[in-house]
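Changelog note: in this version the structure field was regenerated for every chain. One regenerated record is shown below for reference.
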Amino acid sequence: MSPVSGVPVWAQLAYLVCAVGFILALRGLSGPRTARRGNLIGAAAAVVGCAIPFFYVELDNLVPILVAIAVGSVVGLVGAQRVQMTQMPQMVALFNGVGGGAAALVALLELEEFLAPGAEEPGTFALVATAFTVVVGAVSFAGSVITFLKLQELMTSRPVLFPGLPVAFGGSLVLALVLSVLLVTSPAVWIGVVLALLGLAVGVLLVLPVGGADVPIVISLLNAFTGLTVAAGGYVLGNTLLLVAGTLVGASGTFLTRLMASAMGRSVANILFGALKGGSTLGAGEASDRPVRSAGAEDVAILLGYAGRVIIVPGYGLAVAQAQHTLRELVEVLTARGIAVDYAIHPVAGRMPGHMNVLLAEAQVPYEQLKEMDDINGEFKHTDVVVVVGANDVVNPAAKTTPGAPIYGMPILDADEAQQIVFMKRSMRPGFAGIENELLFDPKTTLLFGDAKEQLGKLLSAVKAL
């Protein structure tokens, strides 16, 4: 029997429209100007796709299904409204993990249906898809929970290592593979349950050694895992829309993971297993006590007042301080004085690609002022003043000059080539990579210590008073 033979033509056409909606959503999400529209299209397609089965399938347990949808909708709505911009990566991790876990549970229930007395014997490929969905969905769920705990600082964000971790991980992986084969050749529910538990263990062991700036990249990888499990689950359930949607998520997640790894100048394997060799980013370290040159807001205002060209480098500290609106006001005042100002956006500025673009768009910063790294790096040498607001590793020259540094090889913004650099920081603690930034000690660098929003407010007043 064809998997879609029980689906009426009108429903298949509606699924096709939804699939096109998902593709258009991805297209819209590829740019800041169209991202909001793309998000709305994707959400609408998802709602329609979820509603269609209610009109042609005689559903058992209708009330529990509706209650589950209502509870999930309320939790999602409240969570999306209350989450801070700085907490977006961990929210993505949590929602992604829930998707992977749901796919694994659905596959286990389908396995029970396959093996029920009188049921049609499942095909080999259906059992392969079931085993894949169970184990990879469980890996995605457990791994995503660990990334959420790390980013939310409910556990250490540094790599967690212990003796025998590689052996435990490798052994769990091999055992999961053996059980997957066994599930296909001799299907049984208990094998599926044990496989799911092993998947949970593999997910935890996979993410524990990852720390620091590598965690968001693993979130993207786990997102790709979830997409692939949803696609496999779509085959198991005979739902073409799930197959298409999961494939799109899996492909885009894989592509994003490679882009993020490339932006960090490292391979995905190094990100996942680098800590076992001491090569991963390590998270926050100790504050430096080396002497630096610092100044007040009035001194920096005079520096900016005499500049003809200024570049702003925003980072995660800007998001934490919620200083994007004050920064936009400062840039407007500088621009009104005839000073050319642009924002330099590193591919992983903030904690995820696009994170900084969304933050600045929220503050009504014109898209024309946002310049990607490759487009603006050549302009730093012609710039009078670079103002680094809450960024660190993305301007750390160690990425170019120190082979032993954990960020060595990562493409950075060439802020060190500017005539003057102003660093706005709370303290001398290192960035997410856990290493000192030599740019802080450069004779051209002036530090403006304090909360970014407070200092930008003082700087704005001082510039207006010039």
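Spot check on this record: Strands lie at 309-314, 340-345, 370-372, 385-389, 420-425, 445-449. The longest strand covers residues 309-314.
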